[in-house]
Structure formats: structure tokens, C-alpha cells
């Protein structure tokens, strides 16, 4: 049962008067017998099922059903839009999350006598065929990422489909802002009927920093209901996740630390060992995957980041959802909202982009009331993260695993020998680009950053720092910084 205490939980059966019989039947089939706290709050404390609301609840506590159930029920109460029109629009930050939400929606509506279609719209898929399916079907519910929806709303035919809209949900609203989706969201809101037409607005997240207020104001009328299952004095990480950090003296040792950490964690919990390792950039994650495939052949490994095709992202997402064990190397494309059942360990290597992002990544474990652990691996300059986030319950990692990491240098070197030079060069460049944004916090200047990146390259076994195109150096604002090797890798390779 998700998020908590069985004794306090109310069974869904007690909502027989509120929720349609067919929805309750769907929930039973899904194994949702009791409401999670956030589901109970939304379903019993909202003034009406169509009231505006801002809802905050911890990761993995069932927020998806908490917005799907009231909004679908509202449609069933005489608000079903005409065929072909969208009644519920859910906006979320990633393609993976859109697919996951749509799947849960299909399960919830599975027992309705009349099929309620849930469509998705996100980038990375063929626009034309996506559009054809949308226009040819009856998309009563649409789950979309802001970019693709904004794009297809350019077509009048698509805009017309929204004239009976009843609800707009923003899932992970703060993440969408951080990803720079605010212009698209505003543009979407300008092209669907105005808020004054009376559609319901809902915003859901585990973290709701003040900066979301601007977007919140666009979808919620003043006087909206605020619901939270989080005590304002506690950190919004799941309380039953022990959280640790390991600080290594140099960037070079982060690989060895990760190598030892994974094995030590596996030894403690050998049964169904399922872990997610977050890295900071897509190419950095690709590199970790390449390396650890060589270093830890005994584990089934997976990779998920934005440099992979949408087809392979979807395939890997499903494989890792279904896997009983294994290690997923991931970037923040799955940092939020993704539900990979039974992940028992989350490792973060390097700085998370924000405190909220840290919290959401930790939230990939201990979902639906299960246990989980979280460990971050930082090198000296990154260790400030723990000190400036005193509300997070992060403790030093208990086992003495960093005392002699140098003994693993030959193993790591060996592992890197099997990694493609181009993968290393891409990771090197991504490392520069990512950490450039955090210079002040890392207490580095541009020269120090390049030195650090060169140590990273050395750790990867590069005889010299990889070449970087002049144009890229300019874009990163690192022109003239000593230590960089400028040139084209393509020429060198040929
Ligand atoms: P959140 O959005 O809060 O992070 P999700 O909606 O993704 O959480 O749900 C987390 C997990 O809990 C999912 O696997 C979901 O199927 C499960 N879950 C949600 N509600 C219930 C419930 N009432 N009973 C049992 N499992 C549930
Ligand atoms: Mg969610």
C-alpha cells in the first residue's frame, strides 16, 4: 500500500457514493484497495471534484490516481465532452512520464462500459502520425509534454478539440518550469479556452517552490484549495529512506567509490537488488553505463538519457519497470515521477541540479510503501551540497569504503580500456558544460574547472584531454582558458 499506515487508511469501497462503480472496479483490478493519504485528501476534502487545487505530497504516494480519479469522475457526472473533444489535459515534463500516466489512466477506466480514450503527445515521435491518431480518435483525455502540445496547437483543427475542456492538470509543475517550459505552457494556455470559461486547474508535485506561483496563478483561480500531506517543518523526502553521502578527495576516485559502493550495497541486500544511479549529464551517464557494463558484468545494466532514441528509451523504461533486479544508469529524464517498482537503492553521482531534484531522485525508491536507501557520491568541491541542505536527513555513509580507493585504480583503468574514446570525449565535454553552471558553488574559476575536467579525462584513461571544437569552447564561455585542447575530433579520428 502506498505511503503508509494501513490502520488509518480508508478503503476505496467507502467511496461507493462518490466514485462510479466501474472506476472502483478498475481500482480493485489494479490492487488499489485503500486510498493513499493524498488520494483520500483530494477525494474527500476538495469542495467539489471540479475545484481548483494545489496539491503537495511526497514522492511515490499515489499522486497520479489522486488527479485522475476526481477529474474522470467529474466527466462521468454529465460532463463528458462531445466525441473527439478533449475533456482532461494533463501536462507533464517528460515523455516517459506521459506514457506512465496514460497507462495508469487506461487501467482506471478499463471497466467503464464506454471506452474512454487516453492519448499522449510528446516530442521524439513522428509529428504527422501522432497528429493523425489524435485527430482521428476520440481523445477524451490527453497527456502531453508542453513542447509537442504547443507545437500541434498551431493547427486550428487541434485547437478546436479543446473547446470543451473541463480540467487542466500540471504534474511536476516546478520541474516543467526548471526545464524552461514556461513559455510553452503560457502559449498553450493562450490557445485553449480562457480560464474564465470555468475549467478546473490542478497542480501536483512533491516539491512546490515559490517560483511555481507564476504558473500556478495561470491555472488556478484565487481561493483555490491547497492540500498537503507534508508537514511544513520536515523535508519532503520519504521519511523511511535512510540517506547518506560519501565524499571522495578527488574527482578521479568517484568511479572507484561507485564501484565499491554498488558491491557493498549489493552484499547487504543481495536479494532482488534493483538500483538507479543518477549522473549529471546524458553523455556522463552514457559513460558510466559503458564503464560499469565492463566492471560489473554480474549485474544486468540499463541506461536511460536524452541521447538515446525514443524507441530505445521506451523499451528500456518498460524493461526496467518489469525487471526484478538490475542497475539503471539514468539522467534526469527519469528523475521525476517515474515509477520503477521495487527500486531499493538510489545513488546520485555528482551535484543534483537543485535541492528539489535531489528529493525527486531519492523518490525513485521507497515507492508504494516499500523500503529504500539513497547515497550520494561527491568529490570535495561538491560536498557543500550536504552542508547547505541541512533540512535533508543526509548522514555520512556508515561503512568505511573510501579509506583505500586507490587499490581499485587498476580495475577502473582496465574497465575504461573497453570504453570508446568518443564516449569519453563526449562525457568530458558534457562535464565541462554542466559544471560551468556551478563554478561559484564549486569554488572554482574557469581555469580550475578545466583542470578538474582534465583530471576527469585522466581518470577515464585519456592520454591527453579530448579535443573540443573551437565553436563549442566559445559557446561554453571558455575561450582562452588554459588547459583545453582545441580542434576537431572528426579530423583526428579519420
Ligand atoms: P507519485 O506521483 O506520488 O510519485 P505514483 O502515482 O507514481 O506516485 O504512485 C506510486 C506507486 O504507488 C505506483 O506504483 C502506484 O501504482 C502505486 N499506488 C498508487 N496508489 C495506490 C493505492 N491506493 N494502493 C496501492 N498502490 C498504489
Ligand atoms: Mg507523480
Fraction of residues in β-strands: 5-15%
CATH architecture of the largest domain: 3-Layer(aba) Sandwich
Please give the count of helices.
20
**Fraction of residues in H or I helices:** 40-55%
CATH superfamily of the largest domain: P-loop containing nucleotide triphosphate hydrolases
- The CATH first-level class of the largest domain comes to Alpha Beta
Measured distance between first and last alpha carbons: 57 Å
Compute the average pLDDT.
94
Strand order of the largest sheet: 3-4-2-5-6-1-7
Describe the global form: globular
Structural Rg: 24 Å
According to CATH, the fold-level topology of the largest domain is Rossmann fold
Number of domains: 3
Protein name: DEAD-domain-containing protein
Can you offer a commentary on this structure?
This is DEAD-domain-containing protein. It comes from Lindgomyces ingoldianus. There is one protein chain. The protein has 494 residues and is an alpha/beta fold. It has 3 domains: 12-228, 3-Layer(aba) Sandwich (Rossmann fold); 237-417, P-loop containing nucleotide triphosphate hydrolases (Rossmann fold), CATH 3.40.50; 421-493, no CATH class. It has 20 helices and 16 strands. It is globular, with a radius of gyration of 24 Å. The protein starts with 20 loop residues before the first helix and ends with a helix. The site of adenosine-5'-diphosphate has 21 residues, from helix 3. Magnesium ion is lined by residues 63-64, 171, 337.
